[in-house]
Amino acid sequence: MIAISRSIGILTLAAGLGLVAMAAPEPAPPPPQTPAAPQQPSDITTTISGGPGAPTRLAVPDFIARSADTETAAVAKTIAQVLFDDLTFEREFALIPRDTYGTIAAARSFEDVPFDRWRELGADGVIVGTVQKVAAGIHVEVRLLNVRTHTQAFGKEYDGSAANPRLYAHTVSDDLHMSQRGLRGVARSKVAFASDRDGERMANTIEARSVREIYIADYDGAGQKRVTTGRSLNIQPNWSPDGRSVAYTSYRRGLPNIFVSNIYQGTLDEFPKAPNQKENFQPTWSPDGTRVAFWSTRDGNSELYIANRDGSNVRRLTDNPGIDESPTWSPSGAQLAFVSDRTGSPQLYTVGADGLGLRRLTTGDAYAARPTWSPLPFNEIAYTARVGPGYDIKVIDVGSGQVRTLTFGEGTNESPAWAPNGRHLAFTSTRLGKVQIFVMGRDGKNVKPITTAGNNYYPDWSK
Amino acid sequence: MMQAVRRMGAVVAVASLAAAVACAGKKPPVARPSPPPPVTTASGTTAPSRSPAPPEPVAEPTIVPAEPVKEDAIASASLDDLNRNSPLKPLFFEYDSSDVSTEGRAVLDANAAALKKYPSWTITIEGHSDERGTAEYNLALGERRALAARTYLISLGIPADRLRTVSYGKEFPFDAGHDEPAYAKNRRAHFVVTAK
User: What is the pLDDT of residues A276-322, one digit of tens each?
Assistant: First the structure.
């Protein structure tokens, strides 16, 4: 059955979209932190659903090229394929495989969509789009059509450069999820990580140690770009909540310190050095972006600290002769989770951002480390646990203490990082040989590598 | 049923995106050029005799004059050559431990003797771990290992300001293998002469 429901509050058609024409969007724009709310009281939007309990089945045929050149044809194909992949990834809709569309005549406009044929294929909705070359770049129009009623459930137009067709697909995917499900998609989000892929060696080291540089990529692994040129050890990248800066640990001055790369301005900030020739590690932005938690050996052994985003006003959070490291903020910023070996082996703890209310979280693991707190609406912490000879990703529910395991000994698995909507995780695994970054659903399913070159470490998903 | 859809002229979500593109188009992300290598504290001629207070009898540096040629070789070697054939030997640790073993103390005794023999040297003690465990925890563990070595050397009378520490965690294994013999070589404190 196809139900069409009325819902108020969502704008369906917006013209003149802000995919502004720019000659060379390098690097691609940052993921907008939160999609701006629809700005007007609304039109009616309809949502398409499958039968009771059944997922909504969508088809995404190639977009219609309204200009005759080959570039437009290629863009039309790319947008449809990437949109299909984006929708598949989020697992909110069931996507009908694109290689089954062969016998269905391609539409030439929105007016001649062969609904009956799509219905025969089992589709509840079909996404039809057009791409037209215009002076400033391309004009893209997208509609989600209800196969049964032939009505439009979603429609939007986009204008901008033709330089990165994938961005149109990502934007459409995010808009569709928001419109149809009130869901924040992750198609425009990005992943930062460290890599040794360029094979560069550090100067002045006897063994010619290999460098690690910070890279960013789209959430699906496309568009990988190098951010740092430190030619040293650059690790532990962490996105600012606005997606415009990446903080990381760099050894470029010899001792590790915290740097902030403002990647769309091309500027670099450095924290004040730790006193007494000590080390600062692993910056982690507070959810409001005003503060950075990190750990440092400045007072003799590793402790947690919180500073302003420029590194000023350092406050100490822990005081224990054991190791304290790997801070991660709760979504509200009121608490942090971290790792301490104060009872012998590394375990997860939580503490208030004021340093009060210390609580041990993990009890069932011999070794539990590298926590990362999920975004709302979940209240879970993913971490790395020793299981047998290797390590696996587990998730603990902060409220109940219940633990679930997401990886099961395929290689060693570490460094979980939540997607901004909490429905996916990135992590590192050696299951294919070298250390690569993978993504998976919050249930541990749909595991997929997003890096292939060199070794890749320390993934962090934009907020 | 759907009503007539009104077009809203103004627009949406991607506004911030647009602004970002505008910025992004101008400059690719860049980082500043790599700075000079780490500055070390002036390699003074600090006398090794300053506040020794060793907790236990210390093996004095061998007074035996080594053969002069070799002596000159060490004294005149470049830092790179010196570190390639370093008289300072690495100190190894057990899994998830920063305890200095009996053999480890012997290594540090010998290293302390060398440092007393060449009182102008300043060194960096690097803490390393094997590949097991998280990269982050291993950075803390490496630091603790470097500090354990440093503390012991200080107890033998080596001035603290000649001994810096840095942790590399599991980033730079000495042996790239994935078995216990490799791990044993990688759980180490490594001594690098940074000024002479």
Answer: 899 999 999 999 999 999 999 999 899 999 999 999 999 999 999 99
Report the residue from A23, A43, A253 with minimal CB separation from B25: A23
Q: Which of A386-390, B77-81, B146-150, B175-179 has the lowest mean pLDDT?
A: B77-81
Nearest to B153 by CA among B47, B48, B71: B48
Residue A427 is encoded by which pair of tokens?
Answer: 């992590």
The Cα B73–Cα B70 span in angstroms is 5
For residues A411 and A429, the answer to whether their CB atoms sit within 8 Å is yes
Question: Over 90: is that where the pLDDT of A13 sits?
Answer: no
Judge whether A417 and A453 are in contact, CB under 8 Å: no
Q: What single letter denotes the amino acid at residue B96?
A: D
Smallest CA–CA distance, residue B143 to chain A, in Å, is 8
DSSP reduced 3-state for A168: helix
Distance from CA of B69 to the nearest CA of A (A): 24
Q: Provide the β-strand partners of residue A280.
A: A296
Q: What is the pLDDT of residues A30-82, one digit of tens each?
A: 444 443 444 443 445 678 877 777 889 999 999 999 999 999 999 999 999 99
- Nearest Cα to A439, choosing from A181, A90, A174? A90
Q: What mean pLDDT value characterizes chain A?
A: 90
The shortest CB-CB distance from A326 to any of B27, B41, B136 is to B136
Residue A437 parent element (H or E): strand A436-441
The reported pLDDT for the residue numbered A230 is 80
The whole-number pLDDT of residue A53 equals: 74
Query: How many other CB atoms are there within 10 angstroms of residue B95's CB atom?
Result: 13
B30: nearest CB among A175, A266, A415: A266
For residue B12, which residues of chain A lie inside 8 Å, CB to CB? 11, 14, 17-18, 35-36, 38-39
Nearest one of A27, A137, A145 to A75, comparing CA atoms: A137
- pLDDT tens figures, A97-130: 999 998 899 999 999 999 999 999 999 999 999 9
Interchain CB distance below 8 Å, A32 and B144: no
**Chain A residues touching residue B22 (CB < 8 angstroms):** 20, 22
Among the partner residues A18, A22, A155, nearest to B12 by beta-carbon distance = A18
A69 and A45 in contact (C-beta within 8 Å)? no
Q: Please say whether the beta carbons of A368 and A350 come within 8 A.
A: no
Q: Answer whether 0.80 is exceeded by the pTM.
A: yes
On whether any CB of chain B is under 8 Å from the CB of A281, the answer is yes
Is A25 in the B-facing interface, judged by CB distances under 8 Å?
A: yes
The interface predicted TM-score of the complex, written ipTM, equals 0.85
The 3-state secondary structure of chain B reads CCCCCCCECCCCCCHHHHHHHHHHHHCCCCCCCCCCCCCCCCCCCCCCCCCCCCCCCCCCCCCCCCCHHHHHHHHHCCHHHHHHCCCCCCEECCCCCCCCCHHHHHHHHHHHHHHHHCCCCEEEEEEECCCCCCHHHHHHHHHHHHHHHHHHHHHCCCCHHHEEEEEEECCCCCCCCCCHHHHHHHCEEEEEEEEC
Q: How many whole angstroms separate alpha carbon B57 and alpha carbon B157?
A: 11
The distance of B147 to chain A (nearest Cα, Å) reads 9
Paired strand residues for A215: A193, A226
B14 and A15 Cβ atoms separated by less than 8 Å: no
